[in-house]
Request: fold
Amino acid sequence: QVQLQESGPGLVKPSETLSLTCTVSGDSITNRDTFFWSWIRQSPGKGLEWVANIYYTGTSYYNPSLKSRVTISVDTSKNQFSLTLTSVTATDTAVYFCATYSGSRRNFDYWGQGSLVTVSS
Amino acid sequence: QSALTQPPSASGSPGQSVTISCTGTNSDIGTYNYVSWYQQPPGKAPKLMIYEDRKRPSGVPDRFSGSKSGNTASLTVSGLQAEDEADYYCMSYADNNNLLFGGGTKLTVL
Reply:
């Protein structure tokens, strides 16, 4: 079974760049031919918001509302994928989850435990 | 595109049934058969409960069922149990490879 673990700084200053990495274990990131690798976030006390998806070949899709500030990338040699979010503000404070997304069923299957990122000076 | 619309709360007594609605538009729920539902206990990651409108992943009790009519999808939990108390989120595939979540519904077992 695929397992996912987020890692990265828990505190980022306003206007700076948020960077997170998700390490995949239990399978190769290239083995799942219908899986995309995803980021979803959840602001404190609020609902879920899809951020971005990437296929191991590099094909990516972004939430239109975040597209101008977000980059998702994949490192197959490390079995990891990453998220960068530029020019952060307090509204970007959230728990960031990495997850798998089925391209055939259009749903999220496996989730990491989540990583809280706080934007504050 | 805006988030899908869910009621903020729902409740029922043990053994009863409760239905949570999720309303979208012709650009998402009304066009695509890709509504999924997620259960999120406090402080934990979401768990997939329903996919493709009405299908259950293995391991999910058959007390959970999904349905859809027009632009509205629904999740029904039958035979409520205390362990069902959690937040529930719907999600739909939408135009231009977008993915939309609902605002979430807090289910309370009385």
